[in-house]
Amino acid sequence: MSDTPVKQQSTAAFYGQAVASFAVAMAATAVGIFRLNADAWVRGFLAIAVLYLVTSAFTLAKVIRDRQEAGQIVSRVDQARLEKLLAEHDPFEKL
Q1: pLDDT tens digits, 71-94
Q2: DSSP states of the chain as a string?
Q3: Which domain covers residue 47, as residue numbers?
């Protein structure tokens, strides 16, 4: 009586869309910073800020995913313990 959850996977189209969207956004931001009418140090600062923002977003997404996966593992362990207790229990033992 164990229910194994279906592994959720993204389709190739969704993965491709995500990669393309990220590439377009980074390219547009790079072009915008490059064509900005400002000093070189201002453009450099904005470029570093964008890179820091991107790395922070990737780190946050990874942390959220890891916490969700850890919660699923704990849930599975608890479910296995409950199934073991129910399998070992004999309701007619004391009769």
Answers
A1: 777 677 777 787 887 787 777 777
A2: ---PPPPP---HHHHHHHHHHHHHHHHHHHHHHHT-SS-HHHHHHHHHHHHHHHHHHHHHHHHHHHHHHHHHHHHHHHHHHHHHHHHH--TTTT-
A3: 12-88
